[in-house]
Amino acid sequence: MEKAVAQKKIEELSKELHEHNHLYYVLSSPLISDFQFDTMLKELQDLEDQFPEFLLSNSPSKRVGGAVTKEFTSVKHKYRMLSLGNSYSKEDLIDFETRIRKLLEEEVEYVCELKYDGVAIGLRYVDGKLIQAVTRGDGTSGDDVTTNVQTIGSVPLELKGDYPKEFEIRGEIFMPLKAFEKLNKEKAKAGEPLMANPRNTASGTIKMQSSKIVAKRGLDCYLYYMLGEELPTDTHFGNLEKAGEWGFKVPNVSDRMIEKTNSIEGILDFINFWDDKRKDLPFEVDGVVIKVNRHDRQQRLGFTSKSPRWAISYKFETEQAVTSLNSVSYQVGRTGALTPVANLEPVSLLGTTVKRASLHNKDQIEKLDLYIKDQVFVEKGGEIIPKVVGVNKSARPDSAIKIDYITECPECETELVRKEGEANHYCPNENGCPPQITGKIEHFISRKAMNIDGLGGETVEQFFKAGLINNIADLYSLDPLKMISLDRMADKSVNKIIKGVRESLSIPFEQVLFAIGIRFVGSTVAKTLAKYFKNIQNIKNATLEELINVDEIGDKIAESVQEFFIDDKNLEIVNRLTEAGVQMAIIETEEEANLVKVLEGKSIVVSGVFYQFSRDELKKTIEKYGGKNVGSISKKTTFIVAGDKMGPSKLEKAAKLGVQLVSEEEFIAMISEG
Ligand code: IVH
């Protein structure tokens, strides 16, 4: 395709995709199918790969993520990010309203809104483009999380209409209940500890290193406050209306998510309506926010050191039930993570009977100062199971017993461990703890892993109890005679299992790497590692630094990989799998295998814009010829493939460290030798 044509097409596709994105995520009224959307996006991505010089800074392709942030940059807020004064009773609110009216000596117009339960974000736009997204932090400076926020569908990357040249808009990033439930289902399946609630999950997600994962988490964002030198109107309500026209997700008047009123009755009516109706919302709200509408009146009221005098939040009372705590049990997942669960005297809460509630971890139990036989308050949030939120200590019977968090695994009696910075305890007896053993085998045989037909959870349990299998490698030496002697095992089922196991020998290495169940190595990470290191030996021998240098691999994953290969039992299992014929290396095509690895042992940084390759292609080519892609320039960098428009700070660093710059043409010449 001609360059000019490509450029025009990229611009057109980007514009159309922004529009469809707005229809889908903000207005919930898509005009085209998901398939059509994906096809257009793919077309755009292909063109951007071919013509990286025309890639727009806020391209819709940013929505799928890709950038990895090892450490977020701290950014000073242009306007301090304040919080709100709280009120917990209607009396407090009546006081607030009376105070405002007295101070202003006139009738006041208020705007009532919902208080979204998530994390605050400040978005800066220049010339209609999202240029920066910053978390609240300490109110004075926060973290730059732009690449993660770009993946949130309802946050516009490009605005439309009559927006000012420069402004900031603030809002709340939250996780809709459906997305939260989906994530926890996946976590439960993977044997990982569950997330406590949508708010914590949203705040954890926005600080994740991999924007690709963020993109998959389904975050959403409502905007609630505009700041700038040239705002479109002189009221808060007017500004939000305008923001809606420019493409932001703002509350609707028609479903009463935002409302103007000039009386306390109006405010209380709004609260009463939502106190009931919030249960039908697809996301969590923890109260309402009341704001004075006119900017000049806001200015007259001013701020205290922490919050505006012209706004207040009111927190809903949550529905709770009181019941007694009978016991605490502890569940062990596939990865050994421990979850304490409260067993309760059954009690009815919001129409269902609650018998069990989550206690999350040891800290939580200590914070609650929990005793067996205590009267506890139970609440239902967006969680799958309800949670214990408090204790009525005055009702504690003399016979109550303080909970001593267990120190040994309830399944295998191994001493529990807790890693620094982690909330959960783990049973480290990976290869000897029954639920971990069966959990690992079940994971190994699952569809996305070794896809072993004929075997299921029940059979695994049965084989394990009968002593036929103790780890994943045992599957490859199953004795048909022993299998057939078990209950409900017919010839046919045995044959099917044997066949399934045999067929799993052709499962490619990247899937095998996922199947062996290294903590934090999900299917995407496994693919990345397999492609980069080519075989299990290289992964085993990789240093921590080498692992972290791989795109999308952070400290946590790198450490976990190393820990896995330090364990002799794991090594033995890997050896047995290798001997059984399981794929432990990626299969290279003949052409690939015959290449002379001219870049072997070289650490290469790619920077700037290229014409013969897309960035991805260039990186792949480096790997193909045995080189290693590294993210940043250091003394150890062999050379930099320097394209057009390489940033001045990188050029300076290269010069300072004396790292050689290689042009695109020189690079091509280098590899053609291979
Ligand atoms: S207005 C200066 N409006 O609640 C006024 N805040 O403690 C700034 N929040 O940090 C806040 N929904 O993260 C405002 N409709 C809403 C809100 C809202 C949720 C959060 C926000 C803020 C916290 C206040």
Give structural attributes.
674 residues; alpha+beta; D-amino Acid Aminotransferase, Chain A, domain 1; OB fold (Dihydrolipoamide Acetyltransferase, E2P); five-stranded antiparallel sheet; 19% strand; globular; binds 2-(butylsulfanyl)adenosine
Topology of helices and strands:
Layout lengths: L2 H24 L7 H17 L23 E3 L8 E3 L2 H15 L5 E7 L2 E8 L2 E7 L5 E3 L2 H4 L16 E9 L2 H13 L8 H9 L4 H6 L3 E8 L8 H11 L11 E4 L2 H14 L7 E8 L2 H7 L9 E5 L4 E13 L5 E12 L2 E7 L3 H7 L2 E2 L2 E5 L7 E5 L9 E2 L31 H12 L11 H9 L14 H5 L6 H13 L5 H7 L7 H11 L2 H6 L2 H6 L5 H12 L1 H13 L9 H5 L8 E5 L7 H10 L3 E2 L9 E4 L5 H10 L2 E3 L1 H9 L2
Parallel strand pairs: 2-11, 19-20, 19-21, 21-22
Antiparallel strand pairs: 1-6, 3-9, 3-10, 4-5, 4-7, 7-8, 10-11, 12-13, 12-16, 13-14, 15-18, 16-17
Helix pairs in contact: 1-2, 12-13, 16-17
Bound molecules: 2-(butylsulfanyl)adenosine.
